[in-house]
Design goal:
It comes from Halalkaliarchaeum desulfuricum. This is ParB/Sulfiredoxin domain-containing protein. By secondary structure, the protein is α/β, with parallel strands linked by helices. The protein has a domain of 166 residues. Helix content is 40%, strand content 14%. The chain contains 9 helices and 9 strands. Strands 3, 4, 5, 6, 7, 8 and 9 form a 7-stranded mixed sheet that branches. Strands 1-2 form a two-stranded antiparallel sheet. α4 packs across α5 and α5 packs across α7. The longest helix is centred in the N-terminal third of the chain and has 20 residues.
């Protein structure tokens, strides 16, 4: 049933389910999970369960390491149509990376660009329609139903001011300060901007942090941290070759790629 779940003699609407999850389930789960033991268990699940047990399905890279990228580089949009497991450290072949959609063309980045670069009012951007669509499809939008548009606009304004004042801070830094917002993941790294890497090294935004990434582009922030979830098998083959034969085999066009920094000793990598 799409819009209602039958419970006994009554029904729960999508809005009621979302409210129950937001007010009861997630706070309780968050309290339970915010312990070192559960942190370790979650990392283990994300790393092991994300790729299964197929031979060659794992990357050689440290799965929770952060790469630092130029937010202005060309980034594609690989957001799955429905929520999926993190797939952290997964190596996968196929044509999933042959996409033309760009991150910058998404409704949220477009709205942020219009608001902060061009000075449009939020009502004149794609954001209100996008938020209402989220509520219609999923029962809430970023945890809100009532006044969801106003809340989202206000949250983005606050995030913009924070990043303009303090720069881009990692989720671990925000968690240590106690300013990571409601419902942060028990392992802060899992809340970073998450991308996939295609066969040719293209970065494909997958989940988390689209507001942060879009604002970083507007503010001209030079580098932002990303967590790599999935790598294409052909790209992993490039990593394997470099690891086995040395950096001399790197094609000139790939020198400086953020996902080769751990093999080349260049660029910044934070290992969790």
């Amino acid at each position: 049933m799409n819009d209602r779940t039958v419970i006994g003699a009554g029904t729960w609407t999508a809005r009621a389910r979302a409210s129950f999850k937001r007010q009861v389930v997630w706070p309780a789960a968050g309290r339970l999970l915010r312990t070192p033991v559960w942190d370790a268990a979650l990392v283990g699940y994300a790393v092991v369960a994300s790729a299964g047990s197929r031979p060659g399905s794992r990357t050689d890279a440290a799965p929770l390491s952060l790469r630092w990228i130029d937010p202005d580089r060309s980034i594609y949009d690989a957001l799955p149509p429905t929520p999926e497991r993190p797939r952290i450290g997964c190596v996968e072949g196929g044509d999933w990376d042959l996409i033309d959609d760009r991150f910058a063309d998404r409704a949220v980045p477009q709205a942020i660009d219009l608001r902060f670069r061009e000075g449009y009012e939020w009502a004149e951007t794609p954001l209100p329609a996008h938020v209402r669509d989220q509520v219609e499809r999923f029962g809430d939008a970023w945890g809100h139903v009532e006044d969801a548009v106003e809340r989202r606009c206000r949250a983005i304004e606050e995030l913009y001011e924070s990043m303009r004042t303090d720069g881009y801070l990692t989720q671990a830094t925000l968690a240590a300060r106690g300013t990571s917002g409601p419902g942060p993941p028990p392992v802060p790294t899992l809340g970073e901007i998450t991308v996939d890497v295609g066969r040719d090294g293209r970065l494909c935004w997958r989940r988390n942090g689209q507001h942060r990434l879009a604002i970083a582009r507007v503010l001209g922030i030079e580098r932002v941290p990303v967590l790599i979830a999935r790598r294409h098998a052909a790209w992993q083959a490039i990593r394997d070759r470099i690891r086995e034969d040395g950096t001399m085999v790197i094609e000139p066009t790939l020198r400086g790629h953020p996902d080769l920094a751990d093999l080349c000793g260049s660029g910044r990598i934070d290992v969790a």
